[in-house]
Amino acid sequence: VDVTSTTGKGSHFKIKIPLTLAIVSALIIGSHKQRFAIPQLAVRELVRVGAGSEHAVESLSGARVMRLRDRLMPLVDLQEVLGVSERGGEDKVDTGFVVEPDAGGRKVGLIVDNVLDTEEIVVKPLSDALRGCGAYSGATILGDGTVIMILDPNGLAGEIVANMEDEALYSGAAASAAEM
């Protein structure tokens, strides 16, 4: 607790709550038979894609994109970013939901299989062994006793950029090898 007081004007109280006691509203999403939480404050937009929806996943120069209000948004499968499952090119799913996280000004959509619920969750800090994983900001225990990871939008954006740079390097190396 920080207290700042000015004579004749009043006092200012600032209370800092430890991360282990933080309660946030979260969107529970599913991807490849696993559940994750993403803080609702970090979700800029949620869009259904595929059959029965006005939005569709398109391919532009080999990259997956979606048209949203007359702009193209690059899409990445959450499974691929987290390394949960490697879907081959023909196995890529173009139905489900696209979550646009508020990730430091980066415009990218995450394809997830389903949106399960919204829930108030208690944020538990990561253990020392997992602190280096930038895609996660913590963990929580759901009402049914299941422990799920809480996604960090900025960390995810960093993982996505790193994956895109790796793919560009791989494509460049493959093209150079093909020319030889």
Task: Please tag this protein with its features.
180 residues; alpha+beta; six-stranded mixed β-sheet
What does this protein structure show overall?
The structure is a single chain. With 180 residues, the protein is of the alpha+beta class. A hairpin with a 2-residue loop joins strand 6 (57-60) and strand 7. The longest helix is centred in the C-terminal third of the chain and has 27 residues, at 153-179. Residues 169-180 have low confidence and may be disordered. The chain is 18% helix and 43% strand. The protein is globular. The chain has a 6-stranded mixed sheet. It has 2 helices and 13 strands.
- Inertia-based shape: globular
Question: Mean pLDDT score, rounded?
Answer: 80
The SS-based structural class is alpha+beta
Residue windows where pLDDT falls under 50 for at least 5 positions: 169-180
Described by strand count, sense and barrel closure, the largest sheet is:
6 strands, mixed
Q: H/E order of the elements?
A: EEEEEEEEHEEEEEH
Determine the strand fraction and express it as a percent band. Answer: 35-45%
Strand order of the largest sheet: 5-9-10-8-7-6
The share of residues in helices is: 10-25%
Radius of gyration, CA atoms, in whole angstroms:
20 Å
SS field, number of helical segments: 2
Give the N-terminus to C-terminus distance in angstroms.
66 Å
Number of strands: 13
